Amino acid sequence: MKYLYHYTSLETLALILRNKTICFNNLLYVDDLDEAETEDMGKFGKFVYVSCWTEDSEESIPLWNLYTPNMHGVRIRMPEFPFKKYRFKKDQLVIVNT
């Protein structure tokens, strides 16, 4: 099984565990504002929410520096495809995988 990895603070880990949720942030509030704009769709970032993860199973010092205060935090792991996939048909919702 393949996994995704997320670097975060201990405080954020506590929120994830307490609420059993992962927060998605508006694309307008990421570090690189150019990520919220494309040539063909303009400034669509206000409609998109993201959570930053990596496929790299090796730990990354740059990611520790970026996402954990003073490199004090945790790296969590989850399956590569944790969400159910849905397909919409006219007047019907179909679950693609379970």
What features would you highlight for this structure?
98 residues, alpha+beta, two-stranded antiparallel sheet, 2 helices, DUF2971 domain-containing protein
Task: Please state the average pLDDT score.
Answer: 83
Low-confidence stretches: none
Domain module count: 1
The biggest beta sheet is recorded as:
2 strands, antiparallel
Strand arrangement, largest sheet? 1-4
What is the percent of helical residues? 10-25%
SSE string: EHEEHEEE
Shape: globular
Rg, rounded, reads 16 Å
Report the structural category. alpha+beta
Count of discrete alpha- or pi-helical segments spanning 4 or more residues: 2
Using DSSP, what is the number of strands?
6
How widely separated are the two ends?
16 Å
- Strand residue percentage: 15-25%
Organism: [Ruminococcus] lactaris
Protein name: DUF2971 domain-containing protein
Structure description:
With 98 residues, this protein is α+β, with helices and mostly antiparallel strands. It has one domain. Strand 5 and strand 6 form a beta hairpin.
Gist?
It is built from 2 helices and 6 strands; from the N terminus they run βαββαβββ.
Indicate the topology:
Layout: E1 3-8, H1 10-19, E2 25-26, E3 49-50, H2 61-67, E4 74-79, E5 86-89, E6 92-95
Antiparallel strand pairs: 1-4, 2-3, 5-6
